[in-house]
């Protein structure tokens, strides 16, 4: 059989292929020749054939048939054969294949070989693909080599020990004696791998971490090594861009960060050296920036002095001026993590951060936007909002929703005056109205309603803002509501804050009729406009007949919602005209209730009027039911019904006591005389059948689960159970998961149902949803449906994500029939 071609010739031949098909043909032909050679047990060219096979494997072609040939090469006595054999084993074998166990004895023999290079090959292979069984069998040999005086073998043995610890953590103590003298080595390769080994041990075992802090006095040794690296002169062997061994410096800084975390003594011992590294490292090259970045992370993670933390933030501030986009992004991300703990120090770099909003890179823009919102406070609100509003004008569409939401939250928290607050939100609605969240309109209406002295100014500004432009629907909705509510102030010209405009009743109605007939107007917007026109019938005097005509026209609209409104308003004119002025009088001041911490929503038989359930008893003198307006706008209800709150109490001993009363404060263990009179009648069937039988029948498998919400990485799933004791009770378990790369915190789930249902929302399992779907939040909803009507629900989700407060509404109408029939 002729000698096979060399690897170099094969590479040259494959590179001449003009098409993928031609390359495949060459590979197949060569693979056939290699297989024939393997079958003939040709020992002469086995090494060459395996080398060619590895090249084909690197190109993506199958090479598994060469696995046993690799084992034969490893068993060979020639170093060239062993080298290719071990390389093939690392590429073609892994612990999922039993073949790799056949090489355990060969590796053990080679670890005890007289030649250091053969020992090095065995250590590399074991450290690359050794399974837990191999690591247990060979850990003793690795530990012996870790104590040898040969630096070439010690560095490889240290890395192999890292792999052994990862595979079999209980073997960690075996390597503890060998680590005592590792940091006294002068060879940088041994020092580097030793630091990696110590880092792995500290990260995996709190006991090891405590041992190295107290018994081994590891911090002073690391400080000494790091100081020598900084102060040492030029060393051509370790110099990278004028810095001595930056890779070792970075590894030492990471280990110091682990040792100093939550430990005062260790942090104190490393403060001085960290200050030296931060001030003596050259920043003109990327190598120096890498060391400085690790230094900053270490300073921020340990219990460092305040002056050192300011120095670290100033380093990040210098990074923001760097031309490299990656360094600027890293600086913004780091500042965003530290802004809560060192707010004043980060504030000094506010102008540089704001300049990053103009960067062309979208990743830098997003980080700069998030950091800018984190820096907003009562002192800089005007300047920061000016910059952020300018950014909102010019930014890409994907930024507008988050930016608008951030501006709303900042303005609500730090507004210097109500006029400024109203102007700012109107500016956002004018600029990015179609991108704002659903709650922007009711929030602005509430703000305007509560600012009584600003009514004339606001309605005039809104009137001007929508003249001829109906593209921003939320702005048009607010303007329609205000013109209906304060139309009399608009035509009277009572505005004192700016020059009043002369507007007639006819012109106001022209605008609202234009909104009704505009193709850009959504159904909701038309509803706002029609209601506004109806309200003006009690505020205007000369155009009542025109208003009647407009309302009667829409009594036959194809839009059912608009038609229903028009028919009801017509009835007001014809049958109940004496009540019209009272029904359409100006809205009272709205109270906004904010709550902190976890909340629960208790649903009574009002049309979607939820309430916040306090986890602690309310202070005396306060009415808990005043919180019933928390989700008043969730389904757009106009009437408020009494709300009964249920607070978590200790469960009665009986099994029936575990079924929490869905109607309120019903004490299952008290006598009837001691039960407080409820505000809503309590159906007697809630108490029927409370016995020791299971509370819920196991028919969950028969009721399919549904996905109630899936958006922006957040997924809400509903699963169902039915109560044995009361078939009218459906128990819904929600599971919230997060597929994004960052955790969602402060998660609050709220729900509302129509008045024919009653709802109780129990406490969630957590308020934080882990990233990458690594965990879920569960929460239980109990729904009483005595009339067996189709279940409908609207949900409200609020959480913090990527530094921004998120809020969204959704309707759930796809409940399976088995859950309510």
UniProtKB/TrEMBL annotation:
Residues 600-622 are annotated as: Disordered. It is a peripheral membrane protein. Residues 701-816 form the GAE domain. Its main location: cytoplasm. Keywords: Coated pit, Cytoplasm, Cytoplasmic vesicle, Golgi apparatus, Membrane, Protein transport, Transport. It is found in: Cytoplasm, Perinuclear region; Cytoplasmic vesicle, Clathrin-coated vesicle membrane; Golgi apparatus; Membrane, Coated pit. One of its GO terms (cellular component) is AP-1 adaptor complex. Pfam families: Adaptin_N, Alpha_adaptinC2. One of its GO terms (biological process) is vesicle-mediated transport. Subunit of clathrin-associated adaptor protein complex 1 that plays a role in protein sorting in the late-Golgi/trans-Golgi network (TGN) and/or endosomes. The AP complexes mediate both the recruitment of clathrin to membranes and the recognition of sorting signals within the cytosolic tails of transmembrane cargo molecules. Belongs to the adaptor complexes large subunit family. This is AP-1 complex subunit gamma. It comes from Platysternon megacephalum.
